[in-house]
Amino acid sequence: MNVVYGGIFGFVVAFGLGPIVIPTLHRLKFGQTIRDAGPASHLKKQGTPTMGGLLFLLPLPLAVLFFAADSLEAWALVALIWSYGMIGLADDALKVIFKRPLGLKAREKLFFQILFASVFCWLAANRFSADGPYILPFHAGAVSLGWLFGPLSVLAILASGNAVNLTDGLDGLASGAVTLCMAFFAFWGIVHHDMALALVSTVLIGALIGFMRYNIHPAQVFMGDTGSLALGAALAASAVVSRTTLILPLVGILFVIETLSVIIQVLSFKLTGKRVFRMSPLHHHFELGGWSEERVVAVFWLVAAIGAMLAWWGI
After folding, report:
1. pLDDT for res 101
2. What is the CA radius of gyration of the chain?
3. Residues marked as binding?
4. 209-255 confidence digits (pLDDT tens)
5. DSSP class of residue 30?
6. 133, 187, 254, 303: least surrounded by Cβ within 10 Å?
7. How confident is the model at residue 260, as a pLDDT?
8. What is the SS3 assignment for 52?
9. Facing residues of 143 across strands?
10. Residue 174: how many CB atoms within 10 A of its CB?
């Protein structure tokens, strides 16, 4: 079965690329700069290579070429994932190579994110019938979005990309959580005979497992914005083609919680001058509360798994 072979292929390629890519990033001095605003315990990670998202991005087009070369849907999914990865790569490069602390300007990132998401959503609606009835959670039926399909889908992709980016703050946290979330879409694709979605999902799952060999604590490489923006786009794009965008907040509940913690922290400080959490995103709150990095990651992975399982039960 191509889906199984795709997952194995993704794992082997990502795992095999590690000993090549990571030393290369070291030699090029593409090391992560740790902000003073973060937990003091993270300062020891200074210089760890970033842009490691390439390890799980590279297997995707190769797998589609080998196993689904005639599938426009598979190529569209990979194109969106890669386009967001390239936005992240440009951001990482400006930070690391050209020493521009904030990377791409916010309006530059937003412009390209909207552009690529809009093209993908147009394809999804016109070629993959993704604008059909959208499934509601907890067996509540389905609803037609009409003209809202485009804006809602683009917004979902933008939000998901940046939510995963916010969550990527601990070794293995984002990579493990997205792996669990993508399992939802892999099963969806298999059950509903959307083999393009199933293949891309399983390839990404396999590649992420291979990547985590180098990304779990203590991380040898970080995914950077290259990886986190791409993974967020992968989640939302999978939801768009499977017509489960309205269930995506449950599938990715961990990323929703992490994003809300930042919003709450900012609003509270602006309105009252007080912080709700020790530090945001939420994973830093627990770190500063005395939890080990490994414990935070394990608990947050559990939350991600529960969200994906609840979403599956709810459809």
Report:
1. 64
2. 19
3. 165, 225
4. 999 999 999 999 999 999 999 999 999 999 999 999 999 999 999 99
5. -
6. 133
7. 97
8. coil
9. 134
10. 32
Are 80 and 121 a contacting pair, CB within 8 Å? no
**Size of the chain, expressed as the number of residues it contains:** 315
pLDDT the model gives residue 31: 72
Residues 129-160: tens digit of each pLDDT: 888 898 898 877 889 888 999 999 999 999 99
Q: What are the tokens at 86?
A: 């390239």
Q: Alpha-carbon distance 250 to 263, whole Å?
A: 18
Phi, then psi, of 160 in degrees rounded to 5 = -65, -45
CB atoms within 10 A of CB 45: 17
CA distance 77 to 113: 14
> Per the annotation, where are the binding residues for Mg(2+)?
165, 225
Task: Please list, in sequence order, all residues whose beta carbon lies within 8 angstroms of the beta carbon of residue 103, skipping any fewer than 6 positions away.
Answer: 90, 91, 92, 94, 95, 225
Place of tokens 């890519």: 21
Tell how many helices (H) and how many strands (E) occur in the chain. Answer: 13, 2
Non-local (6+) Cβ contacts of 198 within 8 A are 3, 185, 186, 188, 189, 190
State pTM to two decimals: 0.94
- Give 134's strand partners: 143
* Beta strands in the chain, from DSSP E residues, in sequence order: 134-135, 142-143
Neighbours of 138 (CB within 10 A): 12
**Rounded distance, CA 257 to CA 44, Å?**
27
Q: Burial level of 274, CB count in 10 A (0-12/13-18/19+)?
A: exposed
**C-alpha angle 59-221-40 in degrees, rounded to nearest 5:** 150
- Residue showing tokens 């449950």: 250
3-class secondary structure, 142: strand
Cα(35)–Cα(281) distance, rounded to whole angstroms?
14
Predicted local distance difference test score (pLDDT) of residue 37: 57
- All residue ranges of the chain with pLDDT < 50 are none
- The token duo for 314 is 């709810």
Cα of first residue to Cα of last residue in the chain, in angstroms, is 26
Residue with the two structure tokens 């939350």: 303
DSSP, res 277: S
Instruction: State both tokens at 74.
Output: 């598979």
